[in-house]
Specification:
This protein is of the alpha/beta class. Helices cover about 25% and strands about 20% of the residues.
């Protein structure tokens, strides 16, 4: 919704503007609520990007992993028990692979991943960055999930490790690459971008973005138009 078009690609005009800004010496990072495994396959290897922040818990800079926090055994058990009780299907997003749980009677639609049993999923070998509730949970009691921060959006929900959010991950990255916050321009469109946008020197929100994001925006423009304004 921010970077990719409805076809799952980067619009040529947007790419041209990002390449122009990159040629001026600026660094370009992806800061997404999705895990690395859930990104379109071309993104991690695209030379346009200097690194990734994925699911607020995984940070990569020029191929070097700076942070990789994963769901604890307690967190996994709590959300699996929640799904068993409510029937709400879950998507667990990892660095290398995504996993489904309780999707037997629910269409996967555009999702790509592997079905997994409860017993196998609780194994330490399965490392997960974040998870998604693949149904509306605005009116569902999630208080039994204590080991994760549950965020309820209009059509779905997310479970994030308590110490993680997009802004904190961005701060860790900036410290590692010695770039001050005053140099940061962030682009977003969703409620889960608000923390990142508020922590940036300039916040740009897409015209179709959520009202909560627009409330903290300095500019409301598509990426290519915003870059033309900011780097005239």
């Amino acid at each position: 919704g921010t970077l990719l078009s409805h076809t799952g690609t980067i619009d040529p005009d947007t790419r041209a503007q990002i390449e122009r800004v990159k040629s001026m010496g600026h660094l370009i990072f992806i800061n997404t609520g999705r895990s690395k495994a859930h990104l379109p396959s071309f993104i991690p290897s695209d030379p346009l990007f200097d690194g990734l922040i994925c699911g607020s818990a995984y940070i990569e800079h020029q191929g070097r992993v700076l942070m990789n926090k994963t769901l604890s055994a307690k967190a996994k058990k709590e959300v699996l028990d929640f799904s068993d009780k409510t029937g709400i299907p879950l998507l667990f997003e990892g660095v290398h692979k995504d996993y489904f749980y309780n999707f037997e009677k629910n269409p996967k639609n555009f999702l790509i991943g592997t079905d997994i049993s409860k017993e196998d999923f609780l194994s330490d070998d399965i490392q997960i960055t974040k998870m998604t509730f693949c149904r509306v949970i605005t009116d569902v009691d999630t208080s039994s999930i204590e080991a994760l921060r549950v965020i309820k959006f209009r059509t779905y929900g997310e479970g994030i490790i308590h110490s993680c959010d997009k802004a904190k991950a961005m701060k860790i990255l900036l410290e590692q690459i010695c770039v001050p916050k005053t140099n940061i321009i962030s682009f977003g469109d969703s409620e889960n971008d608000v923390e990142m946008l508020k922590a940036s020197a300039v916040a740009v929100v897409m015209p179709h973005g959520a009202d909560a994001a627009k409330e903290v925006a300095d500019l409301v423009l598509p990426i290519d138009e915003a870059l033309k304004v900011l780097f005239a």
